[in-house]
Structures are given as structure tokens and as C-alpha cells.
Design brief:
Number of helices: 5
Shape: globular
Oligomer: single chain
Strand order of the largest sheet: 1-7-8-4-3-5
CATH superfamily: Transcriptional regulator MraZ domain
Radius of gyration: 17 Å
Order of helices and strands: EEHEEHHEEHEEH
């Protein structure tokens, strides 16, 4: 499998490292990533994590913008200046830095969530709340109702 799928929660060790789930590490290896890039999500307290192809995807979008407009500048700041490289050690662990902790609220455990071409890291209780909200929105779509409406 060459996609990040499923989810797992792992404890942070006394040195501030957490093991990336084995099935995620196998995708990292298959894709030939030598390092990972972590980017703060704009709308949720999570980090998007992937290889340089994650950066490539965002840079392609930036290239479509007029370089003289604020949008292109803001996007570049967000993508290039508001992320961090993560190194996997020989045991498949990453360091949970203050940069990650401040945005996510992670303290002692990290929840990993596959998102296909990348994965996210979350504080577990925040992920649970987000997952419940996502399922509720999807259920409303399925039932053809708007938020707050009851199905007929």
C-alpha cells in the first residue's frame, strides 16, 4: 500500500520522541522520503505531515496566483515559513517539538491519522472531537439536511 490509511495513537517517550506507526513508516519508505515536512493546519489543531510532494502540491497552487497579489505572498509565508522538517530516527521516531505542541496541544500521546497522500498528527481528545464533528456533518449531507435541521 502506498497511501497513508487508518489511525493509531502512540505515547511520547521521556526524550520527547514518538514512534510513527509502522504502516506509515512503510509508506514513507516506499515513497523514498528522506525527511518529512510538517505544516500547521489552518482550521484545526493538527499538523499535516508528508514528503516533499506535499510541498510540491502547495507550490503548484501558489504558482497559479498573481505573484504581485497578497494571496501569493500569504500562501508562500504559510507554506515555506510556517512549517518544520521532521527527521525519522533509525527506530522510526520523530521528535515532538514545541512548534508541534503549541499548535496541537499534544502533551503525552500523539494520534496519527492517514489522509491518503499525507498524514496528520493530533492530540487524541481533539481528534476524537473533530472526528465526531466530521461524522455529524457527513450524516447531515447524507440525510439532505442543513446544520440544526432534523431529517424528515
Amino acid at each position: 500500500m502506498d497511501r497513508f490509511l487508518s489511525s493509531a495513537t502512540n505515547r511520547i517517550d521521556s526524550k520527547g520522541r514518538v514512534s510513527v506507526p509502522a504502516h506509515f513508516r512503510s509508506v514513507v519508505q516506499k515513497r523514498g522520503y528522506s525527511e518529512l515536512y510538517a505544516l500547521r493546519c489552518l482550521d484545526v489543531p493538527a499538523m499535516d505531515v508528508g514528503g516533499l510532494d506535499l510541498l510540491d502540491r502547495y507550490e503548484e497552487r501558489i504558482a497559479q496566483e498573481d505573484p504581485f497579489l497578497q494571496t501569493a505572498d500569504d500562501m508562500s509565508f504559510f507554506i515555506h515559513g510556517d512549517g518544520a522538517f521532521l527527521k525519522l530516527d533509525q527506530d522510526g521516531r520523530i521528535t515532538v517539538s514545541d512548534f508541534i505542541r503549541e499548535h496541537t496541544g499534544i502533551t503525552s500521546e500523539v494520534a496519527f491519522v492517514g489522509r491518503g497522500q499525507f498524514f496528520q498528527i493530533w492530540e487524541p481528545s481533539r481528534l476524537a472531537a473533530h472526528g465526531a464533528a466530521v461524522r455529524a456533518r457527513l450524516l447531515q449531507l447524507r440525510q439532505g439536511t442543513k446544520p440544526g435541521e432534523r431529517p424528515e
